[in-house]
Specification:
mainly alpha
């Protein structure tokens, strides 16, 4: 499934040139879960996650406009992490890199991709 098809299904329209923090954590997590659910198979999710560069997430969180363009998934993870840092759930974007690596490894090991008490998501 292409990014365009996912955008049509989910209504998510990222601007690749800038990061805009979500208004609420719900927005960020819902966008991320909708995006991943639209991939339909765990194999597709794994392929997407393998391509995520945690250093690009830090750029997104810090609002750096230069550097390599972000994928939709990286932009959404960046927005989610940005909210978590702002709300004190993560201490820094660098801590988020460890969280992203942990999520990626958990998926590769066959675990849960992402979830909270409010938004559980099992792959």
């Amino acid at each position: 499934m292409t990014d365009r098809q996912i955008q049509e299904q989910t209504g998510f329209r990222p601007n690749p040139n800038e990061t805009v923090p979500p208004q609420t954590a719900n927005d960020a997590f819902e966008d991320l879960l909708r995006f991943m659910a639209a991939k339909q198979t765990r194999a597709q999710v794994i392929e997407e996650l393998k391509a995520v560069d945690p250093s690009k997430i830090v750029f997104a969180v810090q609002g750096v406009k230069t550097g390599p363009p972000l994928t939709n998934l990286e932009l959404m993870i960046g927005n989610t992490v940005e909210y978590c840092v702002r709300e004190g759930l993560l201490r820094s974007p660098i801590q988020a890199v460890g969280a992203i690596e942990g999520v990626r490894q958990e998926v590769l090991d066959g675990g849960v991709f992402v979830g909270t008490e409010k938004f559980p998501k099992q792959l």
